[in-house]
Amino acid sequence: MDLDTAKQALEEFIPHVKNISDGSIRKMAGRDLARFKEFKKQGIAVKFGRFTQKENKQIERNVDEFLAITGIDSAEKLLFTWRYPEERETITRLKAEHQFCEKISEGIPRPWRLIYYRARKMFDPNNYKGRYTEEEKEKLKKYHSMHGNNWKKISELMSRSNLSVAMKYSEIKSPINYGPWTREENQKLRLAVKEVMRRKLELEDASSLCSPEQSNGDLWVDREKLCQRLPWTEIETKVGTRFWRQCKQRWSSILAKRMSKGQQLQKGTKSLQNKITLIKRLYETKVEDVSEVNWEDLSDAVGDVPKAILQGLFYRLKVSCVPFWQKKTFCEIIDFLFEYKLPQFEEKL
């Protein structure tokens, strides 16, 4: 399958496929496309975002079954084969013979690459070693000066996972502010996002812009573009005083306020209608965990409002309306809201 055909076929399942590298698209066409089509026949959509507990259990079962079939004696050897050079050739052969890619992703409607990374995070013994000591932080700075962003090499030297060393370096490489955001920091964040968005959009078809520029020179960008993944480590560098996770959270907050366009979501009749619609939609989804909720779809259903606003509305509903909500499951919270609070809201409306 040529690249253009692969993109077109995958776009049905992954709307943001145009933002994925050509190499990754070719791999997904081979590893994922047939799986995605099979899930479609079953009425199951491809998922992204946080893995649910059910999916984690499925990954554990898939790994255990593969170990039993091949005789490989540990998940670490299976997922971190390079750590065992003497057995590497044998393990690689067994993985090829018994179709490792297909087996580990069995029953999970997500791209294979994301499932593989999740499995590595779950089974990496170096991923759960507690807080970094001051000595480890100094070693991390030293190794980064020697090897740059080669996190695989650094993780081997420190016996920590790739993700762990990368995130920790992000936190310690410069003075980080943990207090309230200042006006200057907010301005730096907005300019950083604007800069990366401008560059990103220049590489895409001009039709992706609602209008090339507003009269004041600011970019006018579709809501979907602003919600897509942004290069947070780059934005972190431009802000300078916050690490990437703080930048991402702050941007979500700014985005929610800007996108609301003055809608007073929590006042009067509009507030009641939004609560009613949200409860009904959450009840109809029949999902078992909040991480499975597609907030983007819900935002369209409620009235094209940012998902951050809806998430905040749901949080306020459960805290203010559901007794002992901390001890209830997500399903129990939704059932209570639907059975007891929904009729009250409808009557009041």
Automatic annotation (TrEMBL):
It holds the Pfam family Myb_DNA-bind_6. Residues 124-172, 173-255 form the Myb-like domain. Residues 124-177 form the HTH myb-type domain. It comes from the Eukaryota. GO terms for molecular function: chromatin binding. GO terms for biological process: termination of RNA polymerase I transcription. InterPro entries: Homeodomain-like_sf, Myb_dom, SANT/Myb, TTF1-like. GO terms for cellular component: nucleolus. This is TTF1 factor. It comes from Scytalopus superciliaris.
